[in-house]
Amino acid sequence: MTWLVTGAGGMLARDLLLRLAERGEAAVGVDRAAMDVTDEDAVRAVLDDHRPSVVVNCAAWTAVDAAESAEGEALRVNGEGPRHLAVLAAKHGARLLHLSTDYVFAGDAAAPYRESDRPAPRTAYGRTKLAGEQAVLDLMPGDGYVVRTAWLYGAGGPNFVRTMIRLERERDTVDVVGDQYGQPTWTADLAEKLVALGTGGAPAGIYHGTSAGAASWYDLAREVFWLLGADPDRVRRVGTSAVPRPAPRPAYSVLGHGGWAAAGAEPIRDWRQALAAAFPALRNSS
């Protein structure tokens, strides 16, 4: 089995390539310079060269606010790129695991979103990511996997947890939004689930790749301070209105994990357990 991982410079792709190497899997990581997913000829050349059994698409336009004024550019990466990958992965008989986001939902739910719930994105970023989902599911009904994730952190890139570790050293207090709820998710945990989807017998379709439980950014920051041995009360709760952004942030984008249960698999563990396990590496890299 040969794996091809796009977006190889990102946090998730790095952890995935590490897990694959530990398992002795043949894997190639490609960044934008090696393969621009918006260029169909470039995608064709790379897939023809490597003939992968599994393609994992971690390449994405992730600048949520910038997408509001550049939706066409974001759509090329988040919508057309996955379409190119789906067409050409299907040609090679490969599975395609495509990473998506909680932003495909409106973010105003009162209970966790199910995989089958109707998307209703409120941002340009969410609309472009939904276009990518639809391309993969339409073109690869038997071998296309959409994995929605959110609030990622890891040792291999900038993220909220590493920022809080740094700010604990630099500031007496830190103001953090307390009225947005989601699921902090360690990239290493998600990488394990991607390996399972690529190698196992789970049916194609949509899976939610987030940790169990739910937290606000404020809750997450307090947990980071506690793990550092610092006073969590140095974290001060503020509302979303105190941090205005061009793209509206979801108030509640907790994702349900029924897809894993239906496939006979366990979802990712609770976010607090994962954060504690990840913390030594995060602390050393921050």
Automatic annotation (TrEMBL):
Gene3D superfamilies linked to this entry: NAD(P)-binding Rossmann-like Domain (3.40.50.720), UDP-galactose 4-epimerase, domain 1 (3.90.25.10)
Pathway(s) it belongs to: Carbohydrate biosynthesis; dTDP-L-rhamnose biosynthesis
Domain RmlD-like substrate binding: 1-280
Top class in the EC scheme: oxidoreductase
Keyword terms of this UniProt record: NADP, Oxidoreductase
One of the GO biological process terms: dTDP-rhamnose biosynthetic process
EC number per UniProt: 1.1.1.133
GO cellular component terms attached to this protein's record: cytosol
Pfam (any one): RmlD_sub_bind
Alphabetized GO MF terms: dTDP-4-dehydrorhamnose reductase activity
Assigned protein family: Belongs to the dTDP-4-dehydrorhamnose reductase family.
Stored NCBIfam families: rmlD
Biological function: Catalyzes the reduction of dTDP-6-deoxy-L-lyxo-4-hexulose to yield dTDP-L-rhamnose.
Protein known as: dTDP-4-dehydrorhamnose reductase
Organism: Actinacidiphila bryophytorum
UniProt gene name: spsK
